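Justification of computing resources. Each target in the renewal requires a structure prediction run like the one illustrated here; the chain below, 563 residues long, is used simply to show the kind of job we budget for.
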Amino acid sequence: MPLSTLFQTWKIQWPFSLERQVYTRNRFRNRLFRLGSFFCLFLFLTVGCGRPAPSPRGGTGSDRIVIGTTAKFRTLDPADSYEVFSGNLLYNLGDRLYDYETGTGTLKPKLATALPTISADGLTYKIPLRKGIKFHDGTSFDAKAMAFSLQRFMKNGGNPSGLLSDPVKSVEATGDLELTITLKKPFAAFTNLLAFSGLVPVSPKAYKQGSSAFLPNQFVGTGPYKLTKASGDSIRLEVFDQYWDTKPTHKGVDIQIFSSPANLFNAFRTGSIDIAFQSLDPDQIQALEKDAQKGDWQAISSPSNFITFLMLNTKDEALSKVKVRQALAAMINRDTLNTRVFKGQAESLYTLIPTIFKDTSKPVFQDQQKKLGSEEIRNLLKESGYSSGKPLKLNLWHRSNLTSDGVAAATIKAMIGKDFKDLVQLDIQSIDSATAYKNLDKGTYPMFMLDWAGDYYDPDTYIQPFLSCEKGSVSQGCEKGQSQSWGSFYYSDRANQLIDQERKTRDPQQRQKTFGEIQTLLAEEVPYIPLWQKKDYVFAQKALGGVQLQPSQQFPFWTLKKS
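Resulting structure tokens:
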């Protein structure tokens, strides 16, 4: 989701950033705010402030697990939480209707006893629920409690509310242990959405429905841990003794929030914490990986769902020409970006769908790049009216509070200037995240470097939020919809048709084929240029077992154990 949690609507980690999109304009602004907050946090944490955080109680000799992080949380209320770090806390504190089989992207029932029964028209989902489950305050879990929680998620108007309120028409308890959800339109990925970390039941005795009726510093759910402390520099989780599923083997988890990556790095190296997770600088990660190879500790990494890309404003005079957009995409060497900016701690990205979706992600921009050598790129620009006497002039914008974005933008300028300085003049501009997000949908920026992490484990969350448009035309661009919110203003009848098609069908092979067509269209029309996909890292002491990162990018605490 990237630096960790200043984002009120998006997500980021270390020098990576991450922004989340939404299905509606308001939800998009919320995610932008989330990402913006997260970006600011990253800068705050990278620079560091205040005194070094004290060593957590117990250290690695304790029977509790001690996790160190630079991430901070804004709220633990699931109806308002939309940051990476708080989402991972909710993942461990609560249960969802559905989760994923360990190490896979295969859905499995959690609080539900089976996958939903879906009506023929794809609109009604009937979900059977488990019995005998207790909330942390002793209240019994049932369909009414689940309906209350989902309704609260939609009605309270928190940052992520549109995730559910956009596709859902109603949520009802149609039996003591039966939940019925009715959608406004068919949505093939809806069951995956129900595994979103914030869609956890909360005790009806502890929470209220109502606009902005949030409880940011407490959590009362059904998960394996109870929250007993949540302050600015530490969080304490105790094992819930009435937990219905497999209980953790340790006594609990202490999370120590450090003021800078340097403090986190030093605390881990000296053994005062068991785990370092979100967020370390590239040099620190490189050093820890090297020592892990010598057996000093464990290094666990995996491709993540965070992507970075360039938004291209298709209403801009120059960028309205598809050949110009194709030429720009072919000029960028993603491997060079990864090496110079991130020391190889990222993956080159050639489509908007990250490689965690192995069967669906297609490197369509790499295929295009192989077809376009230097001479072909020059011809595209010349056919668009540009020459050495009349070069293409463009401003590339990035967020001023993200050091890595500035370095990446400078690298892109250098690589384009090396081979095409007679045809392209690229000027680098920067602005703070908050201001940028307010102006994206106004068409202020011709090109902007942005980030995104999907809300749910399905390729749809990397396609629909970028390419769909509710109202517009090819000549006028997108006037209302997702691409307008991003500042791309891309409009395509074909893209809208294909998105509608993949959302309607539940046949995996047909959806995969449709996603392939969408990605091909993306590379042909280039409203966005994918750049890189970050990696997630967890460092753990040798005595710790059960450390794993899920393909959904969640980090489970209950599997951890000390030898």
